[in-house]
Amino acid sequence: MNTESTVPRRTAVGVPRESAAGERRVALVPKVVEKLRSRGVEVVVEAGAGLGALIPDELFTKAGATVGDPWACDVVVTVTPPTREQIGRLRPGATVIGFLAPLTSPETVAALREAGVQGFAMEAVPRISRAQSMDALSSQANVAGYKAVLLAAERSTRFFPMLTTAAGTVKPATALVLGVGVAGLQALATAKRLGARTTGYDVRPEVADQVRSLGAQWLDLGIEAVGEGGYARELTADERAEQQKRLEDAITGFDVVITTANVPGRTAPTLVTAAAVEGMRAGSVVVDMAGESGGNCELTEPGEVVVKHDVTIAAPLNLPATMPEHASELYARNVSALLELMLDESGALAPDWDDEVLAKSCVTRGEK
């Protein structure tokens, strides 16, 4: 009796080595590989895929993965969007899960569609309670918010905490975080742990209580911009002008300013003007976390650290990649949670298109 047709074929998941410059994260880690294996999923890891995150191939194979060609698998999980050449290595009907940048890199989505590949964008996962375990934007923003404060402390010419010494008392640094989503809240919490006197600002007034719960003060400028899906809406021209005027006055009183404001698919709003930087005390620091979308500071040079008016302005790109171990671990859990939502009891890929999470995160259905 031939039983091959009655035994469902295991879904094979491929993990490629990231090719984007400076990217050290990997889409799956050994602990998550073990979990997927228990669901009947095969995992194929490209040689050296985890080296940037200090995970050798041996740890993947010990977890049950095999080393081989990930692009030949049913599902390929990535961190950064695959290149057109990589998409060309996928078979028609395959599935890609990762940060696919559907708003800022439409050519990637077009290439996936042309190849007949099904694409799920991690940044498109709806921010609803049921999908929290899949929210990669939040997990990576936590990493970025933490690291931004460490960069600010490194560049600062002043102590963060108050120090009482035989030579006298040193006042704590004052830190302002502009934009208090996940990254901003983590930045506030980290700066507070380091001893700074913290203040948060956002155009969404409902986050004021979250800021205060972290022991920070709330900077109220009287401008509100409540949007959909947990994001702030884009301000009108008049609102932006008034916001900048009020912020300029406030910013000059802080030693450290960390900006996190982004509007998905749009150029980052200007929050820290050149005039505001000029008014800051010499030795102050601005860490602009929105550099990849143009920056929140008017004097930002994305990817660079510059000094203007004796103020250091840092605009690091891809902060999560600078902490690849924990960033990969968190991201792998997000990817795994989304992937498992697509699997049936046998471990076969069977996405339910009536599921809100899958429907909204899917950017191509595999049809040419």
Automatic annotation (TrEMBL):
Keywords tagged on the record: NAD, NADP, Nucleotide-binding, Translocase
Record has NAD as a keyword: yes
Domain Alanine dehydrogenase/pyridine nucleotide transhydrogenase N-terminal span(s) in chain numbering: 14-144
Domain of life: Bacteria
One GO molecular-function entry: NADP binding
Any one GO BP annotation for this protein: NADPH regeneration
Span of domain Alanine dehydrogenase/pyridine nucleotide transhydrogenase NAD(H)-binding: 153-315
PANTHER family (UniProt xref): NAD(P) TRANSHYDROGENASE, PROTON-TRANSLOCATING NAD(P)(+) TRANSHYDROGENASE
Protein known as: NAD(P) transhydrogenase subunit alpha part 1
